[in-house]
Write a structure and sequence with these properties.
Oligomer: heterodimer
Helix content of chain B: 25-40%
CATH topology of the largest domain in chain B: Rossmann fold
Low-confidence stretches of chain A: 1-23
Strand order of the largest sheet of chain A: 1-4
Radius of gyration of chain A: 21 Å
Shape of chain B: globular
Low-confidence stretches of chain B: none
CATH architecture of the largest domain in chain B: 3-Layer(aba) Sandwich
Chain lengths: 348, 503
């Protein structure tokens, strides 16, 4: 779709030629359009789900429902953003749920036992997450281990550390952390707004920055990137650090939601995040993905679960339907990419 | 002799036509060599005959009956077998298991070890691997032995037509001789053998007829004894190679651009020292496994070094990783463009800009300016005449030659003072080949130092100012233009091997 808009540029015009100002505008709009077109399928699915549930039950289509969903999902969004980056470089981070709990535990200890102010405790929490990510990245890179194994190890180890920090007990934090959730704009909580803003920034970084391009290139062919003179190690390290820090950020919003730090918080979140990201069309093989679509993936799962709960579906049915949706989404994505490839082959 | 297999008007196209109107004939009990430049369509033709690919048009007749195999299995049922050029043995299985993978002798699903070993022994003896234990894991074999196992798997079973796609590329002279004895036996048994090889002496020695393909067309069929090797080369390239690519006399100046001293990179590279002048093209010849690629990778920092010093413009430099080399202005066009060069599913634009994103394309080294990236991509596509629909086309859809131009464009845009090219024309069509020769010539003329590793000796003879010859991990000799002959180069390539044999 880009080729149509590509202005024919005379060969030999030097790199920074001024004649490109007009082209830039065309390029910008086409870039935006690219992102929108990529998300279109998911938006349609989302609208269909909302319509479906609205017909089934009168309560569903209401501001209350949407606010409830919006205030429930920031944790999942934070994790999904990091997971998108990790999957794009062809890795995986299974430790996010445990890292979330560890971050939350540290947050609780810092506020309740050490009487730290919220901002300092939050900073410590995010640093803890970043440190876990650093460990993941270091082990993966230094010993050339599959990130699946390393992060599986940390999934256990970080959970253990959480039990140690919290003494295996849920720690009530109370108003100190509830304050976060109480800040709101038109009924939307601060964590939700931050999550959306971060998702947008992450998408911009992914599609517009050198770092983002390196991630995509690395996930496509790491050896080619390395032999092009790009040191791939700091890039991979950064991705794991980002994932860890975002998981801990998810820990803060999770604490704010529950008013307490639960040592068993976040178990299974890694798989939910992978599901959301994959529904969003990010490839498990690396090299392809979109943060905005991961955001839609989180929304699809959240709407599905809330809707099913409201029409009175049982937990058993809810889980089976969610599972089916994940698989269907991936199959649809498979056919969509194949059609796009065939279109590219025929020369557009 | 009766005609065994015939093809009429065979055609096949991928991005462009690969085969057009190919008529080919194989008689019972003949060895029929198929020669042509890389990309001429030899492998495609054989793949169609062996059922691995289907022709777009044309027909095939096997023993007077129509023959259109839709897969390898169907071809094998009609008695047509292929031994592929790329090794398809499975490393984690034993030799015996590899030989009989698709029909392991078994009782109710349990493999019968004794029967398997016996059958394997017989098959291995045929290719002269009499010493090899059939229960050895294939992982432990050298590349030549793997190739022989592959051949053993092909000829151990009944067949009427046997296709050998470059069977000798990885073999020693002795192994190749042994293979030829087996080929003769099969021939006597009435099997028709299609034989692909780049070694024209070999072709002359064992084949009854030679068919020459050029750019997907059958240009000639010659009977034994009616041609010279030079005739075949002329038919293959369609012009006299030495005339057309001969570079104008060297433009190299006396400034040494790059120097390597005492490079060691175990286990392969034992001792390599050389220098390249600005404006010079230095070729690297040698047998397969002589350590040319390993040398270049070690220089570039892609693999670890055990010793050796590097000098750029006579100043010592430290290279620990490829990023260091590129920062210093050394580029490396890898031998395997798909695995080590291209971002295959990504647009050409991304492939071209990759090595220069930070310092040229991006603002503040971090934000990509798409308009500039588009301009750059369009400029290089135009300059190297990359045949594509647009800069947004995926690299995977281009032909080999155009893919190679895209990787080359990345390095030209990177603007290196030393450019190492490992097999720059492997598997690409003749037209693109000459364009790449011209480009390398222009780079040298502009004062760059160029290193070309190639297995195609004619290419080196035509292109280079000097040719370095490697043998068993050592740099055996360097010949300036005018002092080399093919014989001297080949003698140098074997020198370390014969030394080892004499000790």
């Amino acid at each position: 779709m880009n080729s149509k808009n590509t202005p024919s540029i005379p060969a030999g015009s030097p790199g920074g030629a001024p004649s490109v100002a007009a082209a830039t505008k065309v390029r910008r709009t086409s870039q935006v359009r690219e992102v929108v077109e990529n998300s279109l399928g998911l938006v349609v699915v989302l609208i269909l789900l909302v319509a479906l549930f609205s017909f089934q039950t009168a309560h569903f289509f209401s501001a209350t429902t949407f606010k409830a969903i919006a205030n429930e999902i920031p944790t999942a969004i934070f994790i999904a953003i990091g997971m998108t980056f990790v999957l794009i470089i062809g890795g995986i981070d299974l430790s996010v749920g445990s890292v979330l709990a560890l971050g939350a535990g540290i947050l609780g200890v810092a506020i309740v036992q050490w009487h730290w102010p919220l901002w300092a405790a939050s900073l410590l929490c995010v640093l803890t997450g970043a440190l876990c990510g650093l460990l993941n990245g270091f082990l993966t890179i230094r010993f050339q281990l599959p990130s699946f194994i390393v992060t599986l190890g940390l999934l256990e180890a970080a959970r253990g550390a959480t039990y140690l920090v919290t003494n295996s007990q849920t720690m009530y934090i109370g108003s100190a952390v509830e304050a976060i959730d109480n800040v709101s704009l038109v009924g939307l909580s601060l964590p939700f707004l931050i999550a959306i803003a971060l998702a947008i920034v992450a998408q911009l970084v992914l599609s517009g920055s050198v770092f983002g391009r390196y991630l995509i290139a690395l996930g496509t062919n790491e050896e080619a990137v390395r032999l092009s003179g790009i040191d791939t190690r700091p890039i991979k390290l950064a991705v794991f650090v980002i994932s860890g820090a975002l998981a801990a950020l998810g820990g803060i919003s999770y604490c704010a939601e529950l008013s307490s730090a639960d040592p068993n918080a976040g178990s299974g979140f890694e798989l939910a995040a992978i599901a959301a990201v994959v529904i969003g069309g990010t490839s498990l093989m690396g090299g392809r993905g979109s943060v905005i679509n991961s955001l839609f993936g989180v929304l699809v799962i959240a709407v599905l679960e809330t809707g099913l709960a409201q029409i009175g579906a049982q937990e058993s049915v809810k889980r089976m339907v969610t599972g089916a949706v994940i698989i269907i989404a991936v199959i649809v994505d498979f056919y969509r990419t194949r059609r796009a490839e065939q279109k590219a082959r025929s020369g557009k | 002799m009766t005609v065994l297999l015939q093809t009429r008007g065979l055609a096949k196209a991928y991005a462009g036509p690969v085969l057009s109107d190919v008529n080919f004939e194989l008689r019972a009990g003949e060895v029929h060599a198929l020669v042509g430049e890389n990309g001429a369509g030899k492998s495609t033709l054989c793949n169609i005959i062996a059922g691995l690919r289907q022709a777009d048009a044309g027909e095939m007749i096997l023993q007077d009956k129509p023959y259109h195999p839709h897969n390898k299995k169907a071809a094998e049922l009609r008695g047509v077998r292929i031994v592929l050029q790329e090794l398809s043995v499975i490393d984690n299985l034993t030799v015996a298991e590899n030989l009989f993978l698709d029909h392991l002798p078994n009782r109710l699903g349990w493999i019968s070890g004794a029967r398997l070993a016996e059958a394997a022994r017989e098959a291995l003896d045929k290719v002269g691997l009499t010493e090899l234990d059939p229960n050895t894991p294939v992982r432990q074999l050298g590349i030549g032995q793997k190739q022989l196992v592959e051949i053993a798997a092909g000829i151990s079973q009944e067949c009427k037509v046997l296709i050998l796609d470059e069977p000798t590329a990885a073999l020693t002279v002795a192994d190749a001789k042994r293979l030829f004895i087996q080929v003769r036996k099969l021939q006597d048994a009435g099997v028709g053998i299609i034989f692909i090889s780049h070694h024209l002496e070999e072709v002359q020695e064992i084949s009854d007829r030679v068919s020459v393909l050029r750019d997907g067309r059958m240009v000639a069929v010659k009977e034994r004894g009616t041609y010279s090797i030079d005739d075949i080369i002329r038919l293959m390239v369609g012009r006299d190679l030495s005339e057309t690519v001969e570079r104008p006399s060297t433009t190299s100046v006396d400034r040494i651009a790059f120097r390597v001293e005492g490079l060691k990179a175990p286990p392969v590279v034992r001792e390599v020292s050389f220098k390249v002048h600005a404006g010079e093209i230095l070729g690297f010849a040698g047998l397969m496994g002589s350590g040319r690629t390993e040398t270049m990778r070690a220089i570039f920092g892609a693999d670890p070094r055990a010793g050796g010093r590097l000098f750029l413009d006579e100043k010592e430099i430290q290279i620990g990783k490829p990023a260091d080399a590129v920062k210093l202005g050394i580029g490396f066009l890898t031998e395997d463009r798909k695995a080590q060069g291209l971002l295959l599913p990504k647009p050409l634009r991304m492939n071209i800009s990759l090595a220069r994103l930070r310092d040229e394309i991006a603002i503040f080294g971090s934000w990509i300016r798409r308009s500039i990236e588009d301009t750059v991509a369009a400029r290089w596509i135009e300059r190297l005449r990359v045949r594509c629909s647009s800069a947004e086309q995926s690299a995977v859809n281009l032909s080999g030659g155009n893919q190679q131009k895209v990787v080359l464009a990345r390095w030209l845009y990177r603007d290196c003072s030393v450019l190492i090219c490992d097999e720059p024309t492997r598997g690409i069509d003749v037209g693109a080949k000459f364009e790449i020769y011209q480009l390398l010539g222009q780079l040298a003329a502009a004062g760059k130092a160029i290193i070309v590793v190639s297995s195609d000796l004619y290419e080196l003879l035509a292109l280079c100012d000097r040719i370095a010859v490697m043998s068993a991990g050592k740099l055996a000799a360097i010949f300036p233009r005018g002092e080399w002959t093919e014989d001297r180069i080949m003698a140098a390539a074997f020198s370390e091997l014969t030394k080892a044999a004499n000790n």
